[in-house]
Amino acid sequence: MHGNKQDNAPDIGAILDRGGIVIGHQTTSKKRLLEQIANMLAERLPNIDARQIFRTLIERENLGSTGIGNGVALPHGRIAGLEDVVGVFLHLKNALDFDAVDHLPVNLVFAILVPENATEEHLNLLASLAGIFRNDEKRQKLLETTDPSLIRETFDLSVNGEGHY
Q1: Mind listing the pLDDT tens digit for each residue in 107-117?
Q2: Which of 55, 57, 123, 163 has CA 20 to 30 A from 66's CA?
Q3: Residue 1: inside a domain
Q4: What's the total number of domains in the chain?
Q5: C-alpha span between 57 and 70 (Å, rounded)
């Protein structure tokens, strides 16, 4: 990579533009957080019902926690009728038990919805995000940053070759 985004690299900035960035989010439980995420995304998706999003996220969690470790969760799912990938990044005010693989509470959450047939795009996006969150320096930057534009920039730099996983 020479500073140009790879052809198959997801445009995380555009995904966040469609979904949003929330700093200092407060919630009481994993289920409540997923419900709040569903409501946030439904507000930006006029043809998609919040209950459908919530059901999709819960069904995926029932297969196994999307808490990937190091205080990070990547709840995700496929939605019929969705045209573009949409996501929301949340920095939680208080870490939350998310049944993560390392049993640590979660304070960084990147929730993603993809069109029903976007299998390869879905997997590429999850792999890119997991790579970013595995990087201690980037994860720490996301924890410390309170400016949404700097958070967006951290994700953009990571996928277009200026950062290393």
Answers
A1: 999 999 999 99
A2: 163
A3: no
A4: 1
A5: 21
